[in-house]
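Quick one before lunch.
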Amino acid sequence: MGSNLARNLASREGNTVAILNRSHEKTDALVAEHPEAEFVATRGYEEFAAALQTPRTAIIMVKAGGPTDAVIDELVKVFEPGDIIVDGGNALFTDTIRREKAVRETGINFVGAGISGGEEGALTGPSIMPGGSDESWVTLGPILTSIAAVAEGEPCVTHVGHDGAGHFVKMIHNGIEYADMQLIAEAYDLIRRGTGKSPAEIADIFAEWNRGELESYLIEITAEVLRQVDAETGQPLVDVILDQAGAKGTGAWTVKSALDLGIPVSGIAEAVFARSLSSKPAQRAAAADLPGPSAAWQVQDADAFVEDVRLALYASKIIAYSQGFDEIIAGAEEYGWDIQKGEIAKIWRGGCIIRARFLNRITDAYAENPELVALLTAPFFREVLVEGQEAWRRVVAGAAASGIPAPAFSSSLSYYDGLRADRLPAALVQGQRDFFGAHTYKRVDRDGTFHTLWSGDRSEISAVDTH
Ligand code: 6PG
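Model of the 6-phosphogluconic acid complex:
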């Protein structure tokens, strides 16, 4: 990914790109393979610093964690105040906050920048989410703008906010990516098991969906993955891939951070847990003979069912984005970042993994109402949910009745029903908490905090206002 980003930078007018790798062979190979880039090969940090014009900008693309700290330590020794060190990896945003604070003391700018788009995006134009100081953005803005993807004439980069804001937003991007991928996988599984269609036939369905409201990179590549045939066995490739999903950790970070912030990102969490469950072969083998429903699933009208699944997918996807934006809002408040939600949706329209047609609707929703308390209640999304909710229920009920796991679909529907509920059983939870721990509760009919003197003898129960 680093070499592709370097090639992208070198291809833009006015950029001189110096390369420094731990392995000199790697640098030499890159320089030899791409003479058109006119890379300056360097062999050490001093040589690297000397090759750059001031203010210097270094973009670090190494493994998150210790290796990033090690490179920063070396760069700080050879850089000068006003220079900029950019971490373009998937760093944990709290590490970025820490690093920015430490590097700032030297007068050097440190910028954590989320970069999305994979190998190809790095070369042809990624979506970039930089944090860091306003001063760094003056120099960095034009450089990053020159290499970013362009969507509807606008570059997919914006100064997200100070210190760790860029990596925080990239983390949420990845959380939504996990949810989106899991929802698509559930849609595929339900259609396959419900209708008996082959992966190639389902590829056609996804290709068709990609011409409508669901148009997105992930739907597009899903069609290609499902169409792929294994050269060795002649089987659909998806059938010979081991069904244990990996994860590098950014989805889990999104959920951990949401737990700290108290934001229910249940759809994202289910997507992370679904990968964990898939990767527990011993437990899966031990549970394989537990009973399921007695009758096999019989979908009567395959076309109608496929349309139900499409609507359920769309509705659940709205929940994932709504939850992700809730976390962005909470993070911005907690860490003091001025994050423009509509701008984030804009820079996700191109280059990144979750790029999708409906992101414009998110920008519109926040433009119409910057104080929107829940994205799913914006007029456009409300309409989609009104149209899709019956189908969503049919799909989730069908999945449960037939023993097909659909954790992201069903948790998204529960979230939707939870939010719209007039009354929640949280009242009972409060009663239980007060019973065993005197944790107190509030009442619906008057202000104050109350504790009940619980007893088996109802006559002894009395309420006290602890105010
Ligand atoms: C991107 C991707 C990228 C990557 C992650 C997630 O935005 O380009 O999100 O950062 O694919 O490494 O990968 P895992 O699925 O392995 O966690």
